[in-house]
Each structure stands twice: as C-alpha cells, then as structure tokens.
Amino acid sequence: MSTATPRPLAVSSRGPLKGRVTVPGDKSISHRSLMFSALAVGESRVEGLLEGEDVLATAAAMRAMGATITRGEDGVWTINGVGVGGLLQPEGALDMGNSGTSTRLLMGLVASHPITVTFTGDASLSSRPMGRAIEPLSQMGAEITASPGGRLPLMLRGINPAVPITYTLPVASAQVKSAVLLAGLNTPGITRVIEPVPTRDHSERMLKGFGAELTVEDSPEGKIISIRGEAELKPQHIVVPGDPSSAGFWMVAASIVPGSDITIANVCMNPTRTGLIQALRMMGASIEEVDSREVGGEPVADLRVRHAPLKAIEVPPELAPSMIDEYPILFVAASVAEGRTVARGAHELRVKESDRIATMRAALEANGVVLEEFDDGLAITGTGGAPIPGGGAAVSKLDHRIAMSMTVAGLAAAAPIAIDDVAPVQTSYPAFFDVLDSLTA
Ligand code: S3P
Questions:
Q1: Domain residue limits, the chain
Q2: Could you give the 3-state DSSP secondary structure of residue 222?
Q3: Burial (0-12, 13-18, 19+ Cβ within 10 Å), 196
Q4: CA proximity to 301, closest of 310, 292, 309
Q5: Which of 53, 62, 311, 413 has the fewest CB neighbours in a 10 Å radius?
Q6: Does residue 178's CB lie within 6 angstroms of at least one atom of ligand 1?
C-alpha cells in the first residue's frame, strides 16, 4: 500500500502543457461497480475500472466475502456476484488501506448480513471519523465496536433481518447516504435517506441500473431517496467514465501555466461533480466542452482547457458538495489568480484523507503563498499570474490529492517545491506522473 515506502519528489516548472489526456475511470463509480456487481446474481463486466489502490482494496474485500473478481488481459474486469444477502464471513480482517469510500460503503453492506467483519486501515484512514456511518447502521440493528473517537480498527456485527429506517443526513456525505442505502438493499421493507444538501448521486443511478427499486423525490426537507429491500440485482456491463476529480489537476495545470492548451478526454460531467469547473469558469478559466455524450448512464464530455489569466472569487459555499475533493487544487489556482480568493463553508475538508485546510495551508505557505486560515476554509491572495515563489517543502500527509495539487503548484513555481512523499498518488491515479511527462514533453 501507499504507506510502505515514501517517495520524495522535487517539482519545478516545465513549460506549457500540450496534448491530449484520457483520465482514468471515476473512483466513486469504480468502487460501486465492484460492490454492486458482487451483489448481483451472475456475471458482470466492467470496462475502464480505476486500478488504483483504493479500488483494489474494495476488490479484495468483495473477494474475501465470496465474489469472484478477475481482470482480463484486455483490462476488462469480470465479477461473479453472490446475490444480495449472500455475502460470506471473511476469514480475516478487511484492510481498507487509505480508502474512506471502501470502508463506509462496505460497513453499510455488511450491516444487514449475518456476518462479523473487522475493518482496518492505514494511519490516515484510522484517524477519520466513522461515527457518521456507525450511527444510522446501529439504528438498523448492526452492533459496532469502534476504536476511541469512532475510528478504525472497528468490528461490525451485521444483523439479518435489519430494521428499515428513515435517516436524515446530518452531514452532506455521499458515503453515509450510500452506506444506509446499501444496508437497505438486504433489509425488508423500505429504507429512506433524506438528503438536505445534494451530494454525488452515483449510488442512486447505478442501483437503479442494476434493477433495484429506488425512487428519488424532492421535498421541503430535501431529496428523499427510498430503496425497497431484499432486492435482486441483475448483472450489468458497465463502462466507467473518466474521473472529474483526476481531470481537475490538469484543468488547473493548463489554466495556470502560460502557453498551455490541452484536451482532457472522457470526463464525467455529472452535475453533482462539476463544481470545480464552475468555480474555475467564474475565475475566468477557458474550459470548453467538446463532444458531450452519455457513457454508462452518466453525462460525459471532452474538455479543451487553455491557459487564461485567473481572477479571485468568493467560492460559493453551495458548490462545496460538488467539488469537495477539488478544494486542494482550487487553492493552487487561487495562488496564481489576481486578488484574494475566499473559499469557506467547506468544514468537511478537515476530515478527508488529511485535514486538507491545514495541510494545504502549510504546504502553500511554505512556498511563499499569502493566505489566511478559517475553521471552514482558506483565503488566498494570488500572485496575479506571476509564478508562486516555491523553494519550500510540502508534506503530503498520506493524502493523494495534496501530493498531486502540490505537484501542479510546482509547475507554476519560480523555485522547486520539495514534496516529501508522492507515493499516495497510487490510491487514485497511478499514471499521474506518466501523464505529466507526456503533457510536458
Ligand atoms: C465519495 C464521497 C465523498 C468524497 C469521496 C468519495 C463517494 O466523501 O469526498 O472522495 O464515492 O461517495 P463524503 O461522502 O465523505 O463527502
């Protein structure tokens, strides 16, 4: 796993980015493809699966609970599922590595099966709060013993039948929403999640695609998502669209490095994921959608991104759920914009793979960026198009998005940025540095 051997890297400017890149499969959709296929009866096929460590942790866990999962030489994955209700008792603990999505979604799946599972993870994952998933799953009848503070390692004893609940999300979290819906899959009756603030809706779209009875209604309290349990999922052929979060690094790199002109192919444009594009456009970025189409039930487009002078904005807090993973790279864009960008209302950043407010503040400040930290975000005074000073250290804290964001910052820095460890990039974007080489060749 990414924690094994730290990989330091000094990143300097390399000139304009040019050419075409196809980003790897979306991480959220890849996790769900494996999990839902593993619960269908029969053989599913998945093309374009993200082969990063996080998704491989999900694959290993589903195998340990009975699914047969293989990768063909053509890169297509084949999954033979056990059926809803058919998950088997794994022999050992499930190692979730760095992956919060694997952990919280699998906690949901296990909660309504009569098995007992111990979840473990790396130092980053073991510091993240699991109480948000423990609370609703306990209401459904699962017995969960967590480490102090509701953290990993934790042991979850599932129950069958579980009790259907109606649960209003106290935090905007697609992972918690999905955990409850997945527990609901094997629970008699109707399980409901009320979502006051919309978050990524891949679980809803995909579960419907797999044949689950799932409805989404608008109400004054928010979206009401209802799933009928004891569902039967039918195997699917899934084509995973490109990850907009991975695309974000190239969008910002091309926007801030003068002379750049790139095309990013096959980007998932699901509106619950496009907040960064909206924010960058507000800042004056040149992002053109070419060949908009549909892939695997999701809107997809190619994006042509050219260098453009960026202006500071107040990032609308309501964009937060649709760009929650993109704040680190947005902070890099803000560092070269003209004026003071204020990004607040993103308290959730404190509990991601690292505390992304503190980690980005430290990394940017060490490289001469002027900023102010709030409990829920940062204000950053940009250079107005000049390179950021650089010449400092950046500590990635086992956080892939920090490592990639600070790499992009290095491309727009006057002196090299010394990143202590870029190994975590393996969790979500193993080809990141090869792509960087090809775009700057
Ligand atoms: C994800 C949901 C988000 C996001 C994470 C992936 C998902 O987490 O940050 O990278 O696939 O459901 P939260 O649900 O904690 O906001």
A1: 9-25+241-439, 27-229
A2: strand
A3: middle
A4: 292
A5: 311
A6: yes
Which ligand 1 atom sits nearest the alpha carbon of residue 203? Answer: 12
Please check if 74 is assigned to a binding site. no
Ligand 1 centroid to Cα of residue 307, in Å, is 29
Q: Where are the beta strands (DSSP E) in 296-357?
A: 298-306, 314-315, 340-343
**Strand arrangement, sheet containing 417-419:** 9-11, 417-419, 393-394
**Ligand 1 centroid vs 413 CA: distance in angstroms?**
30
The CATH number, out of the four listed (3.65.10.10, 3.30.470.20, 3.40.1410.10, 3.90.1140.10), of the domain defined by the range 27-229: 3.65.10.10
- Contact 187 CB / ligand 1 (< 6 Å): no
Best residue among 324, 427, 429 to mutate for probing ligand 1's pocket (most ligand atoms within 8 Å of CB) is: 324
Q: pTM for this structure?
A: 0.98
Residues known to be catalytic: 325
Indicate the burial class of 63 (C-beta count within 10 angstroms; 0-12, 13-18, 19 or more).
Answer: middle
Cis upstream peptide for 136 (omega within 30°): no
Output the six-digit token pair for 177: 């929403």
CA angle 429, 349, 182 (to 5 degrees): 70
Ligand 1 in contact with 313 (CB < 6 A)?
no
Contact 223, 195 (CB under 8 A): yes
SS3 assignment, position 99:
coil
Is 293 annotated to bind a ligand? Reply is: no
Decide whether 9-25+241-439 matches 27-229 in CATH topology: yes
Q: What is the mean pLDDT of residues 253-280?
A: 98
> In terms of residues, how long is the chain?
441
Class of domain 9-25+241-439: alpha beta
Q: What is the end-to-end Cα distance of the chain in Å, rounded?
A: 29
E strand residue ranges, 158-285: 166-168, 190-195, 214-219, 222-228, 237-239, 261-268
Summarised one tens digit per residue, pLDDT across range 268-278 is 999 999 999 99
- What's the pLDDT tens digit per position in 282-331? 999 999 999 999 988 899 999 999 999 999 999 999 999 999 999 999 99
Tokens of 370: 């002027």
